[in-house]
Automatic annotation (TrEMBL), chain A:
Protein known as: UDP-arabinopyranose mutase
The UniProt record lists the keyword Chloroplast: no
Regions crossing the membrane: none
Chain's role: Probable UDP-L-arabinose mutase involved in the biosynthesis of cell wall non-cellulosic polysaccharides.
Coarse class of the protein's main subcellular location: Golgi
Keywords: Cell wall biogenesis/degradation, Glycoprotein, Golgi apparatus, Isomerase
Similarity annotation: Belongs to the RGP family.
E.C. number: 5.4.99.30
Organism in which the protein naturally occurs: Rehmannia glutinosa (Chinese foxglove)
Superkingdom, natural source: Eukaryota
Subcellular location, record wording: Golgi apparatus
Catalytic activity field: UDP-beta-L-arabinofuranose = UDP-beta-L-arabinopyranose
EC top class, as a word: isomerase
From TrEMBL, chain B:
Compartments where found: Golgi apparatus
Record-linked PANTHER family: UDP-ARABINOPYRANOSE MUTASE 5-RELATED (PTHR31682:SF4), UDP-ARABINOSE MUTASE (PTHR31682)
Name of the protein in its database record: UDP-arabinopyranose mutase 5
InterPro entries with a match to the protein in the record: RGP_fam
Main localization of the protein described in the UniProt heading: Golgi
Lineage top rank: taxon: Eukaryota
One Pfam family per UniProt: RGP
Organism: Rehmannia glutinosa (Chinese foxglove)
């Protein structure tokens, strides 16, 4: 029997931020090789990052980012994996899968290797159900369905914008939790994909994430982190809160659960604590802000939603710290850069 | 179920429509209630409230003086987990009810209080103590709780997927609560587990009813308002075959049609600040049902009345 062509082979880019090396790609080769890679090289642009042979890729270092975006490159973080969102911006594909360079192929409970990319694609290509909770999780998965009591009018679902995968081995804990539980490993394989309900926020981790660029791309800005910024390790969180508010507003779905990858490296919790420290306090203001954020009926595109949100960020979070005024500004710059690199296609 | 149930007190309520004597295995510590007990306690309320069919269990809830109640349909037996070990559903329900719930922010590693898990990066610290759990909804292996159309279309669809998670259903998110395998904190939410939504042609198999779906949404609204949690997931029970879904399809799809109005109603109902107990909440929900759903269908108007009668009955029984 001939093997099926890799799904979405010409419609999906894999975006990988790296500052070290891409050795991890060897393990992913059987699953990733058919796809185009966008490597975003963080840190010293004079360093050469070797890409393993046989991969089709484009690589951007800081010099490239500065050249392509000009003054707008100020919105792209430096010395932080947040720089990956540059890859989202330059991609010409409909779908993005992004993965960290310390994430490897995991095995399911039967010992079989998990093709994380394939699962993300399945998640993105079938509808989400944010309007009513299905107790058997994703009703579109094989072997499941909508349970008794689930209204038929809601069974069509909505388009899926984001697929958020999870991690076995080193879990995505914050610094305080890492310090208290340095040995905790996630060994629980939860065989579910579920839609995060409308009106509910979640902590989005960028380690193992896929999304539909056409549906939500412009909102996937990973903020100002790293060098010269007062905060780090909140890039994906920030994007996650923004995209959830916008997805809820536009009637799009966000899924979480499978696939799992194997997260191999625990970053230094003391370094992490320094980066996250302000975020831990700011979070307490940021979350209520997003929980109560509403967008106007006139915000009918992702860009309009995002710009409206950026104004609210400046107005309401600017009081918490001047950083948020800078961030709101960067959000605007990001949209300008996005629109310039991605002019609207004629229908 | 003997080894699992025999440590606990059982309340058995015989469906008033079920004639004859029940044969009960020995060795259990139990109370048995039959139609005559129901009539004696309920008295004049018996016109409004029906304890027939699946609703007979609500009489048991009414009679119980315990803090926690677990209720499992009689066509369910212990399931096995993915390691082949028998699941003690009672213990898992107790764990769910006695561990905090986290309805205000979604934790991507599901229950942060279970062993081997925690809150993930980005979870606000002020929300990490959680709230009390009011209701725990378990699941079913083999015959899942599908409605008649789904069951008829896919008669071979068996649930064999063991999802090793308990999660809190977020605040303001509604869900279809199946009465097949649930547990609750009787002190906190007891009055909201009520027999109020009876279809005109309600039958004796689950897919001919939606009474638990209605009740579940009442409980969820109450929990959301009182800042309590509702959890879903483990434990699984093994549900056995019974009935013919296609036969059920021949009856009107009344329940299915009514859900279209029920769900939007519960999603939007809001209670006043003065509703501080489950009883208060139920009375307010009943009033809202009467006003907004009553005009749409007499079933809803009747439900509103029944809910009010139920609270009166609940208070009367508790006072004695």
């Amino acid at each position: 029997m001939a093997a099926a062509a890799p799904p979405l082979k010409d419609e999906l880019d894999i975006v990988i931020p790296t500052i070290r090396n891409l050795d991890f790609l060897e393990m992913w080769r059987p699953f990733f090789q058919p796809y185009h890679l966008i490597i975003v090289q963080d840190g010293d642009p004079s360093k050469t990052i070797k890409v393993p042979d046989g991969f089709d890729y484009e690589l951007y270092n800081r010099d490239d980012i500065n050249k392509i975006l000009g003054p707008r490159s100020s919105c792209i973080s430096f010395k932080d994996s947040a720089c990956r969102c540059f890859g989202y911006m330059v991609s010409k594909k409909k779908y993005i899968f992004t993965i960290d360079d310390d994430c490897f192929v995991a095995n399911d409970p039967s010992g079989k290797q998990i093709n994380a990319l394939e699962q993300h694609i399945k998640n993105l290509l079938c509808p989400s159900t944010p309007l009513f909770f299905n107790t058997l999780y994703d009703p579109f998965r094989e072997g499941a369905d909508f349970v008794r009591g689930y209204p038929f009018s809601l069974r069509e679902g909505v388009p899926t914008a984001v697929s958020h995968g999870l991690w076995l081995n080193i879990p995505d804990y914050d610094a305080p939790t890492q310090l208290v539980k340095p040995r905790e490993r996630n060994s629980r394989y939860v065989d579910a994909v579920l839609t995060i309900p409308k009106g509910t926020l979640f902590p989005m981790c960028g380690m193992n994430l896929a999304f539909d660029r056409d549906l939500i791309g412009p909102a996937m800005y990973f903020g100002l982190m790293g060098d010269g910024q007062p905060i780090g390790r909140y890039d994906d969180m920030w994007a996650g809160w923004c995209i959830k508010v916008i997805c809820d507003h536009l009637g799009l779905g966000v899924k979480t659960g499978l696939p799992y990858i194997w997260h191999s490296k625990a970053s230094n919790p003391f370094v992490n604590l320094k980066k996250e420290y302000k975020g831990i306090f700011w979070q307490e203001e940021i979350i209520p802000f997003f929980q109560s954020a509403t967008l106007s009926k006139d915000s009918t595109t992702v860009q309009k939603c995002y710009l409206e949100l950026s104004k609210q960020v400046e107005e309401k979070l600017g009081k918490v710290d001047p950083y948020f005024v800078k961030l709101a500004d960067a959000m605007e710059t990001w949209i300008q850069a996005w629109d310039e690199l991605n002019p609207t296609k004629a229908n | 179920m003997e080894t699992i149930f025999s440590r606990f007190h059982l309340i058995i309520v015989q469906d008033p429509d079920l004639k004859g004597e029940l044969k009960i295995p020995e060795g259990f510590n139990l109370n048995l209630y039959t139609k005559s007990d129901i009539d004696k306690v309920v008295g004049s309320s018996s016109n409004a409230i029906s304890f027939s069919g699946y609703s007979c269990r609500y009489f048991g809830y009414l009679m119980s003086r315990k803090k926690y109640i677990i209720s499992i349909d009689d066509d369910c037996i212990p399931a096995k987990n993915s390691n082949g070990e028998p699941i003690d559903a009672i213990s898992q329900h107790i764990i769910n009810l006695t561990t905090p719930a986290t309805p205000f922010f979604f934790n991507t590693l599901y229950d942060p209080f279970c062993e081997g898990a925690d809150f993930v990066r980005g979870y606000p610290f002020s929300l990490r103590s959680g709230v009390e759990c009011g209701l725990s909804c378990g699941l079913w292996l083999n015959l899942a709780d599908y409605d008649a159309p789904t069951e008829s279309l896919k008669p071979d669809l068996k649930n064999s997927r063991y999802v090793d998670a308990v999660l809190t259903v977020p605040a303001r998110t509604m869900l279809p609560v199946s009465g097949i395998n649930i547990s609750f904190n009787n002190e906190l939410v007891g009055p909201a587990l009520l027999p109020a939504f009876r279809l005109a042609k309600e039958g004796k198999v689950r897919w001919e009813t939606v009474e638990d779906i209605w009740t579940g949404m009442c409980v969820k609204v109450v929990c959301d308002h009182l800042r309590l949690g509702v959890e879903s997931g483990l434990p699984y029970v093994w549900r056995q075959e019974r009935g013919n879904a296609v036969e059920s399809l021949k009856k009107e799809w009344e329940g299915v049609k009514l859900m279209e109005d029920v769900v939007p109603f519960f999603q939007s109902v809001r209670l006043s600040e003065s509703a501080v107990t489950a009883e208060d909440c139920v009375v307010e929900i009943a009033s809202s049902v009467k006003e907004h759903l009553g005009p749409l269908n007499p079933t809803f108007a009747h439900s509103a009345e029944t809910m009010v009668e139920w609270i009166k009955l609940w208070k009367r029984v508790r006072a004695n």
